Amino acid sequence: MLAEYRGRHEHADLLHEWLTTPTWTDSRNFLRRHPDLAADPRTAAVLKQAAEDPIIAQHLGIVGLVARMPVAEAYDLVTDVGMAVDAAMTCVENGDLASLADLVLAAPRLGELAFVTPFLAAVHAVLTADPDTDHPDAQDLAVEAAKQGTDTQRGAAAARLRRLARRQPEHATAVHAIVEILTRPAPAEPRPGDGA
User: Fold this and answer.
1) CB proximity list for 88: less than 8 A, separation 6 or greater
2) What are the residue boundaries of the structural domains of the chain, listed by start?
């Protein structure tokens, strides 16, 4: 009983120390020194209970990421939004919603980016819905993404979605509907003098 109490207390102290590291570099180095902290199921359980706090939610995402990749790579995704976008697009291509959810928690800027934010939301809506139902929310989000994206972004996203449709044929119809929205030609701009 005493050993169990001591173990809980030590875990709580270690978790608090990690959560209060002053920089992401310090946070990464702390986790490297204490790899068992992220692997301990108590860590995720405690963080989930307080995940309404953005910093705690971010650490919860990091715990999920380091279960799948080295600590340094996980922190690269936290600190470099470009790398986080690339990783998110790979998650889309693979239909890996679990990794995508951890990534969105760990790199909350993914929820603030033109094109990327509505695109990821559209894919999430499709992959979490019943494949036999309509997906109006996903299509609305895809329309918004198409408006915000460059030709390059839309084309690259459509290519990833085609690969996703091959990997998850049960969602192919809904995924191809998003591809169709992303690859529609932009409406022609009216020329001066063209009356309406």
Assistant:
1) 100, 103, 104, 110, 116, 120
2) 1-79, 107-186
CB 163 within 8 A of CB 171: no
- Report which of 61, 56, 113, 59 is spatially closest to residue 82, judged by C-alpha positions: 113
Tell me the pLDDT of the chain (196 aa) as tens digits: 656 667 688 999 999 999 999 999 999 999 999 999 999 999 999 999 999 999 999 999 999 999 999 999 999 999 999 999 999 999 999 999 999 999 999 999 999 999 999 999 999 999 998 877 777 899 999 999 999 999 999 999 999 999 999 999 999 999 999 999 999 986 555 556 554 4
Taking the alpha carbons of 154, 155, 158, 159 in that order, is the dihedral positive or negative?
negative
Contacts with 184 (C-beta within 8 Å, 6 or more apart), sequence order: 146
Distance CA 152, CA 24 (A): 32
Query: Are the CB atoms for 48 and 60 separated by under 8 Å?
Result: yes
Q: Are 79 and 57 a contacting pair, CB within 8 Å?
A: no
Task: Please name the residues in contact with 161: beta carbons below 8 A apart, sequence gap of 6 or more.
Answer: 92, 93, 123, 175, 176, 178, 179, 182
Tell me, what amino acid is at 111?
Answer: G
C-alpha 166/C-alpha 131 separation (Å) is 14
